[in-house]
Amino acid sequence: MDIGSLTSTVKAVVVGQLALASDDPAVDVAGESILAALGPALTQMGTALAEQAAAEVGAQLTDHAIDVVLRDGEPYLVVRSTDETVTISHDDLGARITVRLPEDLKGDLESAASDTGDSVNTFVVRAIAGKTKARSRRSRTTFKGTIET
C-alpha cells in the first residue's frame, strides 16, 4: 500500500478547501500546522486500514494466513498458504445434522469430495472443522515486528 500518496491526496484536498474558504494568510498557516500535526495520524490510519483489509481477506481465505508487514515504512499484505490439513477422529462420529441445500450445490459437493478422494461426509466434516479452526485463529489479533517513527 502506498500510504504516502494517500496522505498527500488528503493534504491536497484540505489545502484546496482552505484556499476556497479564505484568502487570509493566517488561515493558510493554521491549516498547514494542522496538516503537519495530522500526518502521523493519517499514516496510522493507513496502517489500520491495511490490518482491516488483512482481516477481511483472511476471513474469506480460511486456508491462508494474511500478514501485514512494513517495508520502508509502508504496510504490505503478505498472503501465505497455511497448508494445514484438518484431521478428524473417526472414533466419535455419533452426532448428526440434517442440511437442506440446492441440488446443484449437492452435485458440487459430491464432485469436490470425489476430487479429494473423500466421501461427502468426510469432505463436509473437514470443511466445517477447517472453518471452525480458522475462526478461532482469527479471533486474536497479533502484531510481530518493529515500529519505527
Any overview of this molecule?
59% of the residues lie in helices and 11% in strands. The chain has a two-stranded antiparallel ribbon. It has 2 domains: 1-83, no CATH class; 85-149. It is elongated. The chain is mainly alpha-helical and 149 residues long. A hairpin with a 2-residue loop joins strand 1 and strand 2.
* Series of secondary-structure elements, N-terminal to C-terminal: HHEEHH
| Low-pLDDT regions | none
Distance between the termini: 18 Å
**Taking all residues together, what is the mean pLDDT?**
80
Overall tally of domains? 2
Give a brief rundown of this model:
This protein has 149 residues and is mainly alpha-helical. It has helices at residues 3-21, 25-60, 103-116, 120-138; strands at 64-71, 74-81. A hairpin with a 2-residue loop joins strand 1 and strand 2 (74-81).
List keywords for this structure.
149 residues, mainly alpha, 2 domains, two-stranded antiparallel sheet
List the helices and strands and how they pair.
Blueprint: H1 3-21, H2 25-60, E1 64-71, E2 74-81, H3 103-116, H4 120-138
Antiparallel strand pairs: 1-2
Helix pairs in contact: 1-2, 3-4
